[in-house]
Amino acid sequence: MLKSCCVYSVGLFSVLILIAGISLDLSNVFPNLLNSIVKKEVVLKNGTDSFEAWKNPPPPVYMQFYFFNLTNPLEVLDGDRPAVIEKGPYTYREYRPMEEVEFLDNGTKVSAVNPKTYIFQANMSVGPESDLIRTVNIPAVTVMEKYKDSFFARSISALMTSSSEGIFTTRTVGELLWGYEDPFLKRLKPVIPELDDMFGLFYKANATNDGQYVFFTGEHNYTDFARVDTWNDERQLDWWTSDQCNMINGTNGAFFHPVVTKDETLYMFSSDLCRSLYATYVEDITVKGLPGYRFVPPSSVFANLTVNPDNAGFCVPKGNCLGSGVLNVSPCKQGAPIIMSSPHFYQADEKYVNDVFGMRPNKDLHQTTIDINPFTGIVMQAAKRLQINVLLEKLSSFRQTGNVQTVIVPVAYLNESVVIDDVSAKKLQAVIGKRNVVVNIPFMLIGLAILLGVVFMAFICRQKAPESSAAERQPLLNS
C-alpha cells in the first residue's frame, strides 16, 4: 500500500511541476524580474559598473580618416566633374574620458565634459601625416561664399589674385586635420578682424571637448539612462528653421538604456552633425559570442523633405533644400559651405554620386551601425561614418571660380569605430550566462516534470498483479 502511494505521489508531483513550469513560462515571471532588476541597477552613480564604464570607457576607440585626392583641378575650373581618388586610412587612437563630473538634482542628473585626444597610429595607417592631399581650399571658398554679395568681394578677389590663391590647395594630412596658419586668412585678418587665420577640419578638436553636457542618470526612469538633458546649458539648438529639427534628443551615442527592444527607436545627439538623429533595428548579430541587435540610421534621417516632411527645418536658409542624403551644416560651421553625408554619398540621391568620378557607395563600408546587447544596453560594436563635403559654385564676383559647375565635392570621411574589449566581453558573458540560467528555470521545471512522468510510467508498468491463493488456483470442476 505504501509503495503504491509513493508511486502515485511521483505522478502527482510531475503534473504539478509541469503546470508550474508552463505557467511560469507563459507569464514571463523570470524575464520580467530580471528586467526589473537591471533597470534599477544600470544607473549613473558612484560605485556602479555602468558609471565606471561611462566615465572611462574601456574598449579602445579608433578614428580612421580617408581623404579624397583631387586629380583634375584645371578641368573642374573648366566645368568638368571632379575626379577623386580615395586615400586612407590615417588612423588615430581616440581617448575620451568624462571629466569635470558633478552630480546634480539629488543624483538624477550628472554634468560632465567629454574631451577627446587623438594619437596617430602609424602601423594602422597607409602613410605618415606628412602625406600630401590636393583638395578644396576651404578657407578661401568660405571667405568667397561669405562675402560674395558685399563690397569687399572685388578687393578679396584682387588679394587672391596677388597671392596666387585659388579654390584648390595641397596640404598635408596633419595640416588638413589639426590645422595650419593660412596665409590668405592672415592677410585678410587686419581688414576682417573676426577671421581666424588658422584652419583645419578638426582644428581645436584634439585634446579639447565639444561643450558641457548634463545627462540624466536613469535614477527615476531607466529609459533616461545617459540621455542628454542640456548641451552648453541649452535644451534646444538654434541653427535650424523648425523646433523639431532643433531638438536635442537621446544620448551621445556611446551609451543606451538597458532592456532595448526591437521595435523602439534609438535617439542620439551628434555635435559633429549639429543635430539629433535616430536609428532603428535591422537584424540580430553576434559580437565575440555575445548576442545583440544591430541598429542603423534609416535613409529617412537625411531624406529630402519631399520624402520626410519632418526634415523641412534642415533646409537653410529656409526653403533652400538639398536632395536626400546630404545635410548643409554651414550655420554651425561659421558659414563655411560644409555639406555632411554618408561616405561616398551612400543612401544619397544618385545625382551626388554621379557628379563626382570615384564615388563607390558600399553598404558594408559606408553605413553607420550600432550593435547593442539588448539586456544591458551595452554597445558591443559601433561604426560612425560621416563624410565632409564642400559646396562649390561659380561666383560672378570671383574669377577664381572659373566655369566650375555647382557641385558637392567630397573632402574626407571618417570612420569612428569601437569593439568591446575582451575583459568587458567576459563580464558581459557572465551576466548573460546567469540571466540565461534564471530565464530557463521554467524549462528546467518542465524537463523535470517530464522526467518524473517517465519514472511514474515505469513504476506503473513494472507493478505485478497480486498472486492468487492455492484455493483460487484449483479448477472449478474435477473430472
What can be said about this structure in brief?
It contains 13 helices and 19 strands. The chain is α+β, with helices and mostly antiparallel strands and 479 residues long. It folds into two domains: 1-48 and 439-462; 59-420, no CATH class.
Report on this structure.
By secondary structure, the chain is α+β, with helices and mostly antiparallel strands. It contains 13 helices and 19 strands. It folds into two domains: 72 residues; 362 residues, no CATH class. 28% of the residues lie in helices and 26% in strands. Helix 1 runs antiparallel to helix 12. The longest helix is centred in the N-terminal third of the chain and has 26 residues. It is elongated. The two termini are 40 Å apart. The model has no long low-confidence stretch (mean pLDDT 87).
Name the descriptors.
479 residues; 4-stranded antiparallel beta sheet; 13 helices; 26% strand; 28% helix; alpha+beta
